[in-house]
Amino acid sequence: MDYVTKCLKDYGMCVVDNFLGNEKGDRILKEVTDLSDGGHFRDGQISSSTVPFSQMHKVRGDKITWVEKGAPDCGYIGYLIDRLDRLMKASNGKLDEREINR
Q: What number of other Cβ atoms are within 10 A of residue 19's Cβ?
């Protein structure tokens, strides 16, 4: 945890090798692929009205979907979100002027 906090404080980001391990990482990838193959992803949107709708794909090229806690067939995605939430909560108050909102 100290490593993560130091990296976030110094660089605003952190890379943790083997954070999930191969098996859990592969299962998360499978769940995301299944969601994608099932047509659950949509184009990312921007909140600004200054960009014409026809040009949005040039601003954001990502695809998004929402996964509710406990959603069927998304248990490993839930595991990832839980781990990230715990890391962020543990870092709150230790990042100088940066505050993590829950």
A: 14
